[in-house]
Amino acid sequence: MPGALRSGTAAYCVPTMATEIERRFLPHQLPAALELGAGTSIRQGYLAGEGSVSVRMRIADGVPTLTIKAGDGLVRTEVEVVLAHDHAEALWPHTEGRRLDKVRHRVPLDTAGALVAEIDRYHGSLDGLVLIEVEFDDEQAAAAFAPPTWFGTEITGLPGWSNAALARHGRPAHP
Are 105 and 119 in contact (CB under 8 A)? Predict the structure, then answer.
């Protein structure tokens, strides 16, 4: 485990911290020719949230992570740490009533593959919902991005459309 430190029998991982710069979209319909592939199954639940801060646990490709996100809108602080599987399983029951399941597909938007659309197809209580996220290196790149028409309605920063809000309250009315 990269960044892991051993102390007794427990493994500890050094958290990563980043500024997340992301725009989100609600597509009206994905293009028929869009090749999504199998994608990555993700189950995530929220342990806590207050104001613009949320504490999320996610299991993707069998790797559990704990993430703290702070802020609203385009730019947010994100701190993430890999969890031991037994820790994740011990925390999972505490996410009851604040969970979501989705499959994430990564679609390159440029020939270099530097810009990627993450297309999330939700299941369970959010079945049929599809959202698109694009992360950027800086705010200037985010502002300059001209989304393809199939991206539909931009929902960046709109109340009710964060994953934390979807997990707690379900799908909001169409923006």
Answer: yes
Residue showing tokens 């960046």: 156
The encoded tokens of residue 139 equal 């705010």
Can 12 be counted among the known catalytic residues? Answer: no
Which segments within 28-174 are labelled E, that is strand?
40-50, 53-60, 63-70, 75-82, 99-108, 116-123, 130-135, 153-154
The answer to whether the CB of 46 falls within 8 A of the CB of 54 is yes
Which residues of the chain fall short of a pLDDT of 50?
1-9
Q: What is the pLDDT of residues 136-158, one digit of tens each?
A: 999 999 999 999 999 999 999 99
For the stretch 84-94, pLDDT in tens is: 999 999 999 99
Catalytic residue among 23, 27, 42, 46: 46
